[in-house]
Structure formats: C-alpha cells, structure tokens
# Entry
Amino acid sequence: MAAAKYHRSEDQFLCSICLDVFNDPVSTSCGHNFCKNCITEHWNTKVLCDACTGPKLKALKSCLDCLVSYCETHLEPHLTASRLKRHQLIDPVENLEDRMCTKHDKPLELFCKTDQTCVCTLCSVLDHKTHEFKAELEETEAEIQKMIQKRRLKIQEIKHSVDLSKDDADREMAEGVRVFTALKESVERGQAEFINMIDKKLKTTEKQAEAFIKELEQEICELMKRSTDVRQLSHSEDHLHLIQRVQSVNSAPPTKDWTEVNVCQPLYEETVRKAVAQLEETLSEEKKKLVQAELKRVQQYAVDVTLDPDTAHPNLILSEDGKQVHHGDVRKNLPDNPESFFPCVNVLGKQSFSSGRFYFEVQVKGKTCWDLGVVRESINSPSLNYGGKNSTPLIISPVSVK
# Structure
C-alpha cells in the first residue's frame, strides 16, 4: 500500500504531455498541471482528439499502435493501464495511417537507404534483409548534430575573428594615441618656440626704438634749452652780453643726423616658415617610425618564395636558384607548356598559400612599372593581358583554393 501510494504521488509530478517531471509547471483553468512549454505547444497544435464524441478537444498524444490521437482525458488509460503503457506515443500528428506499414501494419520506424523509403521492423528482416537501412530518427539526429557542430565551429571562427580584430584595434589605437600625443606635444612645443621667437624679435625692436627715442628726447631737451637762450638774447638790451653769447648760440648744436636712422623690422614670415618646417620634420620622423613598426610587425609572417620556370614567359630569364628574373632580348624556344604565360610577360612562384598572412619582399629595377600580387591556383595564364612595353607584371604566389 505504501509503495502504491508512493507511485501515485510520484505520478502527480509528471506532465501528461512529455511524461516527465514538471519543468516550469503551470496550471490550467480546469486544474490540470503541465510544463509551460508543453501546454503552449499543445495549444498551438491543430490535431484534434479522435475519441471525443462531442466537441473535439485538442489531442495531447498520438498512438502509433492504436492509430488514434487522444486528448488528455482519453489518454489517461495509456498512462495507467499496463497493457496500453507499451504503446508507442508521439506528439500529435495528422494522418497517422501514413506512418504505418501497409503490408505489416507496423509503425514505420526505420529508413531503408537502398530504396530511400521508410520501413517497419518486419520489412527490415524480410523484404529489405540485404539492404542498408538506418533508423530514420537516428539519421536525422546525426544530420542535426553535424549542423550543430558546423555552427559551433562557425561561432568559434567568428569569435576568433572578433578577437583578432579587437587585438588589431587595440594595437592601432595605442599606436595612434602615441603618435597623436607626440604630434600634439610637438605642435605645442613648436608653438611655444614660435611665440618665444616672435616675442624676442619684438622686444629687440622695442629696445632699439626705446634707445632711439631716449636719445632723441635728450636732443630735443638740449635744443629747447638753446631755443630759450636765443629768445632771451633777442630781447636783451645788454649789448655787451649779447656780443659775448651770440657766437655760442650760433654754433651748431651737438645733435645726431637722424636721416638714415631707422628701426630694424624683423622678418616674422621667416619665423613662421621655420616653425612649419620643424613641424614637417617631426611629422616625417613619426611617419618613419610608423613604417618601421608596421614593417617589423608584418615581417613575422615572412615566407620564402621561389620562381617557377614552368610558368615563366619565354622572354623571362630565371636564375638557377629561382630567386632572380630579368627580361631577355631574345625569346627562348621552349616546348609548349599550358602553365606558362604568353603573350603576357609574367611568372608565378612555386609556393602556394591557402589561408593566413604572408610577407615577402621583392627588389625591382629597370622598369617604370611593376605588378606584384597573388592569383588563384586555377588562373588561366594566357588570359592575362597587360599593355605597355615599360610595364612588367610579376605575379608571385598562387593562392591555393581547396
């Protein structure tokens, strides 16, 4: 009795739709309990109960043995009766007869890969005995798992790309902040030096002008004093005194000839030009630092590339080590090679790359224009065409697309 009561109480915690312990349980207005997702999906279904004689209620499960869909009330025997518990219940579906083998009246549980059709267990051991078959759900599950795995790998790939992008962004931002900080400091320093130089020139001019003005004011005072003496003598009635002083007041006053004296005007425009030139020099130095830093960064991806003589145009002459090539005046008589470039003057590298970052250096001379790059492995060599005798295309490394 205790065991029976235990089982009955345990069944009270089972959802009659998924037949499992409640997950996020909810109650309906009629007092029944279900998992929230189960009852939501059930309400959205359009399959009706085949056992209802009155108004048709929505089916909760479909039985593959009975070929009948049941609502919650009519499904009760399948959950309690030991004989009916062995029946195979599935989520409600229409046209249950389509899921039964017409020959053996058994559920179609297997998939015959040879005939590409669903079969029952009897078909697999009788009519399809030598055929390759697999459980339909297992095959579907395997395909779904493959799709899941592919998408998980794609997520990892995307996340990795984002991480790489973030690293690049952080590096560039740090370098940019450093450069702009240095430029800002240089501009501020140049501005301070510029202002100081202008101020220094202005003060020199002002000092010179002040000296001239002081000297002129002294002469003015001396001249005004002499003017007063002359005026007094002109009104004097003492003829003896007039004769004694007239010679001294008529003599030239001790003054300077100011005709050619001018205040030197400094060239401020030259100061501006020098300040701008200094700023340009600082910018040039920062650009060199950036180029050197970028070159150092990409050189970690350096690869060794050797030129492929089979792809070279007949006018191209390659060194024995495949590291040098130059244009010859005489075309070589070579056997037809579908990989060689003609009439285009090109040559490919032997190495091919499928993914990643790669760096290689090429020294060129003797022409006004060169083309350097990568091509697909499937390139049709003769189809390339470049114009101009001063243009020598050189396509180094094919990209392997697999």
About this structure: The first strand starts at residue 25 and ends at 27. Confidence is low (pLDDT under 50) at residues 1-9, 381-402. DSSP finds eight helices and twelve strands in the chain.
